[in-house]
Every structure is written in structure tokens, then in C-alpha cells.
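Please review the protein record below. Let me know how this chain folds according to its C-alpha cells.
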Amino acid sequence: MTTGSDTGGSTVRRLQLGARLRALRLAKGISRDQAGYAIRASESKISRMELGRVGFKERDVTDLLILYGVDDPDEHERLKLLTKEANTPSWWHQYGDVLDTWFQNYLDLEQAAELIRTYEVQFVPGLLQTDAYARAVIRLGHDNASKEEIDRRARLRMARKQLLEREDGPRLWAVIDEAVLRRPIGGYPVLREQIESLLAFGNTTNVRVQVMPFDSGGHAAAGGAFSILRFPHEELPDVVYIEHLTSGLYLEKTEDVDLYAAAISRLFIDAEPPGRTPAILREILHDLNRKGV
């Protein structure tokens, strides 16, 4: 389970460590090829290390710090600790049997984020789902899964939600298409419970939900759902996450992130204001009552 000190997993630590080593190398004017030679590795290995795409050996980090002229013992100790954390499995490692590698990376990033902006057109965002709703969504994607597997996937999703209760947890700003709130995933009782849960989030300070109404016409994110994660670590740029059926796409290039940032900013303007969300949710509950479902 998450803890107050678990502010990201190995992916984030690798990204932080890689970014720091890259900054130190560039400051000394040392090429990746020269750095690779110093640790008996290739230029491409240094590139992968600096991008946080491989694990780190403590000996390699120490050798690189010496090469880069870092003689501050505190800096050595800090990066040694970061190396250990980068190689330590995150709390969700226990769910590895039901967790794809590409999504493990997202969980690491999610845990470390200070702001998550997301747009959803199909389902309520995972961090806001009730247990019953989550199970219904999971069954849609894993119709042949056993009850035990469904249970484990649902427990994982509920464990993720604790992130929003953490003192240093992220702010979540979500725009949800109105169709999501009227689609009876799992049946109308499940939908009713989910909408009531969303109403309860209106009393929290770190969650903001806006609804994109049916009558809005076209809008800036017609291409589909996406999330943008921002981190409190200055060396980590914003990341755009787009989930596909069998994989996840991560965009980090400035030009890509800027396009999605502009799109979600437009969504915040085009959607109903956050202050209107409780009334919209109550209206949907009223419609369910009127239908007798």
C-alpha cells in the first residue's frame, strides 16, 4: 500500500538520477562516448541511463561522479541513495502478475506527480472510480479473467486512490465527457453510486471535476482521452500519457507536451465551470430517479 514517504517509484528515481548525471556531464563538456568508456560501457548505454530507461549500478554512478569532478561527499551520498531507490521495487510490485510493464511506469509517475490534468471520454478517471465501477470497467477489458484476477486488479485500483488522501498527494483536475456520466457501466445502481462518489469529491480541495456537456459541439480534444502529469522535481519535464488497448504512449518532447497543454487548457474553458459540476451530477441522479433505475 502507499505510504506518506512513497512519492514515486523506480521509474521516477531513474529519471531524476539520469537527468542529474546528464547535467553533470554536460557541465564538464564530456561526451557520452567518453563517459561510456569510463564505466566500460557504450555511448548508447550512457544515453539510456540519462533517459532513465535502464537500471543503475552503484559502482557506475560513483565512477561517473569521479569523472565529472564531483568531490562533494553529500552529493555522492545523495546520488548513492537515489541509485538504491531507483533499484527498489515500488509498492505495486506485488501486483506484477496483473500489471503490464508499460502501466507500471505510469504508476511510478502518478505517485510522484504534483498535478494531474486529465480528459476522459469513456470512463470515470481511475483515481475517482468506486470499487464496483472499477470492477465493471475491468471486466470489460478482461472478460475471460477469473474472479481472483478481477479482485486483484480492483484492489490495485483502490490502493491507487489513496494517493489523493496523502498530505503531499497531487491535485487532480479532470474534464469528463457527459456521456461518461450517463453510460451505465456495471448497471444503473453502480452508476448511481459512482456519481454520488463524484459529488463527495466536490468537498475536497485537491480534486476538481468539470463536465463537457453534450451540447458543446466539437472541442479541442476530439482525438480522445489523455493525461498530463507535472512533477515537483525541476529536472523532470511534464509528461503526456495516452493509454491504448495494449500499451501506453508517453510524450515528453516540448512541442508535443505544449500541444496537449493547449488542448486541455481549452477544455477547461469549453467545459462547464467547476462550480456547475454538483448541479450537473444531481441532475443526472434526478434523471435516474425519474427513470426508476
Residues 1-6 have pLDDT under 50 and may be disordered. The two ends are 36 Å apart (CA to CA). The chain has two domains: 10-86, 97-291. The longest strand covers residues 171-177.
